[in-house]
């Protein structure tokens, strides 16, 4: 998956945007995330940035695509739907890389999870 900002590097991190009460995950690369941090620091909004991304310079583990933006007590169906969305993203990536064995495994995992979510 490509970074939504530079459209060049592989996105390995995620930036959360709360738009009208809905939280969206935006895949970004490390360089763009660092640039966004620099802009937040220049405008004095580092605490807001930390809350949105779960990352700041010096933190060991940034949030990965598919991580929860919600607390552990979120509605179980919502947690499952977010996991399915993350698996679908990985499925698309595996298909692009022509890794068909991984894609087939992910497809089966998604089908199994969807049966449990959408009953």
What's the level 1 CATH class of the largest domain? Alpha Beta
**Main sheet, how many strands, which sense, barrel?**
2 strands, antiparallel
- Cα shape: flat
Query: What integer is the average pLDDT?
Result: 76
Show unreliable segments: none
What's the N-to-C terminus distance? 30 Å
Structure characterization notes:
It is a single chain. The chain has 119 residues and is mostly helical. It has two domains: 1-65, 2-Layer Sandwich (Wheat Germ Agglutinin (Isolectin 2), domain 1); 70-119. Helix content is 51%, strand content 12%. The protein has helices at 30-43, 46-53, 76-96, 100-117, and strands at 13-19, 22-28. A hairpin with a 2-residue loop joins strand 1 (13-19) and strand 2 (22-28). Helix 3 (76-96) packs antiparallel against helix 4 (100-117). The protein is flat.
Please sum up the structure shown:
The protein contains four helices and two strands; from the N terminus they run E-E-H-H-H-H.
What attributes does this structure have?
two-stranded antiparallel sheet, Wheat Germ Agglutinin (Isolectin 2), domain 1, 12% strand, 2 strands, 2 domains, 119 residues, mainly alpha
Write the layout of secondary structure elements.
Blueprint: E1 13-19, E2 22-28, H1 30-43, H2 46-53, H3 76-96, H4 100-117
Antiparallel strand pairs: 1-2
Helix pairs in contact: 3-4
């Amino acid at each position: 998956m490509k970074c939504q900002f530079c459209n060049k590097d592989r996105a390995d991190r995620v930036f959360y945007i709360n738009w009208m009460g809905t939280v969206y995950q935006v895949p970004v690369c490390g360089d763009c995330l660092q640039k966004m941090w620099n802009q937040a620091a220049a405008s004095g909004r580092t605490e807001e940035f930390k809350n949105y991304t779960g990352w700041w310079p010096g933190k060991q583990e940034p949030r990965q695509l598919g991580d929860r933006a919600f607390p552990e007590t979120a509605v179980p169906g919502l947690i499952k739907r977010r996991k399915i969305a993350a698996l679908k993203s990985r499925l698309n990536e595996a298909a692009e890389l022509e890794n068909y064995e991984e894609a087939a495994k992910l497809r089966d995992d998604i089908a199994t999870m969807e049966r449990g979510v959408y009953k």
